Prior knowledge:
By secondary structure, this protein is an alpha/beta fold. The chain has two domains: 5-202, 3-Layer(aba) Sandwich (Rossmann fold), CATH 3.40.50; 209-298, Methionyl-tRNA Fmet Formyltransferase, Chain A, domain 2. It has seven helices and 17 strands. The protein has helices at residues 11-23, 48-55, 68-77, 93-96, 119-125, 161-183, 218-227, and strands spanning 5-9, 29-33, 58-60, 81-84, 103-107, 115-116, 130-137, 147-154, 201-202, 236-239, 245-249, 254-255, 265-268, 271-275, 281-283, 286-289, 292-294. The chain has a seven-stranded mixed beta sheet. A four-stranded antiparallel beta sheet has the order 10-11-16-17. Strands 12-15-14-13 form a four-stranded antiparallel beta sheet. Helix 1 packs parallel to helix 2 (48-55) and helix 1 (11-23) packs parallel to helix 6 (161-183).
Amino acid sequence: MDHRILILGNRALGIHALHHLLEQGERDILVVLNPDDTGVDDTGGLSLKRRVLAWGVDHIQPRGLRDEETQALLRGFKPTFGLSCSYAKIIPPDVIEMPTHGFLNVHFADLPINRGCLPVVWTIAGGDSKLTATLHEVTEGLDEGAILSKGSVPMTPGTTAGEGYAACVDIGNTLFREFWAGYAPTGSFKSVAQDDDAATYHKMRHPYERWIPWHLDARHVADVINALTYFPHPSGRTQLPDGEEIGILGSALARADLTGQPGEVVFQDNEWAVICGSGGGVTLGGLRLGEDIALCDAKLAAGQILTSPEKEIYTE
């Protein structure tokens, strides 16, 4: 069966999907790049644009998908299949309807849980026992489309958002390869509607506005720190006694044997840690000072009290 494939792509997952399609001999491909893809690999991740240019794949890089010129170009391509890999812009209904045999997305959460933005962050901050990616249909409602398949790996203690994202990329790559093996000969697939009553959703906001909640239980505090650890993306934060704001990085682990008052810095067993409201304290992986990563002893001293404004965890 002939395919004309539209990929709305971003970073590692888009690279994996495109590479697999090229390996399968697919050549009628048009890639829509994220507007901010500079073509350079950096600390934020790999560049799909760099690979597209190297592999000679047709591509465009519009600021969005709503202008008539861009939509006319996409209509002219006449896609039979569409795939979104963490594309940064909302996909309008006119574009969703263009592929004649389906438009799919890979979302890094156990849908219908954690629809919307920052799914890996919210999965880790929520204390989930596993990391999951979901292959689902693209609909006008964000991450609401029927589900084709899921894959999961156990969440190990101390997993950071950066590590969780990489794990979800691997899961998503496997899901797409398995899907394509069945879809390529037939142009069809089966899916199951999501349970909207079980859904949760997040806008582009972070847990506790990124303030580390030292007053809460140590296991939850460790999850929050780890969920906000994916340099150079925004990290968790707190304040030194003089009011200076610093970033807190994982991998953080809860230690039930630590005692003191919430926010108190301790150095024990050659580890820097901070006491929490219950459950002991959490070990720290490091500090973020502006755009730099530093060792804990660059700013911390045993006996200091770190403070954070008490914020409710954000839920939509």
